UniProtKB/TrEMBL annotation:
Pfam families: MFS_1. Its main location: membrane. CDD domains: MFS_MefA_like. InterPro entries: MFS (IPR011701), MFS_trans_sf (IPR036259). It comes from Streptomyces capoamus. It is found in: Cell membrane. The lineage of its organism: Bacteria, Bacillati, Actinomycetota, Actinomycetes, Kitasatosporales. GO terms for molecular function: transmembrane transporter activity. It is a multi-pass membrane protein. This is MFS transporter. Gene3D superfamilies: MFS general substrate transporter like domains.
Amino acid sequence: MKSGHRLGRRFGWLWAAYGTSALGTWLAFGAFPLIALRVLHAGPAEVAALSAVGTAVGAAAAVPLGPWVEFRRKRPVLIAADLVRCAALLTVPAAFVLDALTFPQLLLVSAVVAAADITFRAASGAYLKTLLPAGDLLVANARLESTAWSTTIVGPPLGGAALGLLGPVATVAADAVSYLLSALGVRATGGHEPRPEHREGARLRAGDLLDGWRYILADPTLRPLFLNTAVFNGLVMASEPLLAVLMLGPLHFAPWQYGLAFAVPSIGGLLGSRLARPLVTRFGRHRVLVAAGALRALWPVGLAFPGPGAGGLLLVMGVELGLILCCGVFNPVYATHRLERTAADRVTRTLSAWQVTTKASTALLTALWGVLGGLLGPRAAIGLAGLLVLATPLLLPRRDPACRAAADPAPDRTGRA
């Protein structure tokens, strides 16, 4: 990626807003599981349910928001989503101070945040496509990916220190403030945003709710990529609560060590995101997409084998480093491919459907793995998830879409002859 490639002031503000909220998220990394474990004295199944139920309800609530947002200007939606996340998270420290915090409240907050997160991600993809020409999208996505991993390097150690000194509730408050700052950053992007083609007062039809999924499943390259990311992300994230239980429970790692285990390997994500554009230039998008997607599947099974002490911590770091390096290459390439492959008037619905499915699959698998963790133990359940991840490269696109387009006329995905 060319360091001197300028993308303009408006992207700069959007980038800054993204970085601020990402840092806040990582400062609060693991805060909800820790609050459930140490404040509310929840068990492994309840910790898994916190991730699963909140995410599932949030995903369901976000389903009608995709088509609704499609026909509205995206910048106000982004600001509103940030403010909703801020307000929801602030209820946690408020309830804690009043000694009124409950497990159902954590579930409700996680659901609201999940719905707002899906809406924000879908709208931000559409907004990015209006800000930049297609040729700059890979550069922009690589910078956002690089920022995500940079905040991952800094956030968990700081969050771990804050957890030890101030407790998990304080880091939730810091996360809430980060969303407020993100809203101010999005507002500062300014400029004129094109009015969506559909009139803003248009009525939402029931069929609109499925448009995103229809669009994805009709596309021969988006469809396998969609299935791959949903299954891969779901399996990897399903093991995260169990890994937290394993490391903070039987292995007796301190919160700062748990944060460090994910912060240091994030250097791999920073490196991978910087390698994405040069690799695509040299080998082509399809080859990089398939190779990075296959290589990232090799690592998660290793998370079943850490022991106590420095050796176990180094093992987790090594596995996470390999996984994150491959994801750092894969993510900006796949995000760019997805944006370029999606028509401008379908971006929000398509990204919303994508996010809803990813969140729903993650919730379902997290709930299932919570049960498996209770039956088999955290280590065995993590190992099973890792073995299943090894099969996910079979879902990657097998053919280069550029070659497919040359061989076959592009189908009319609007449903018209």
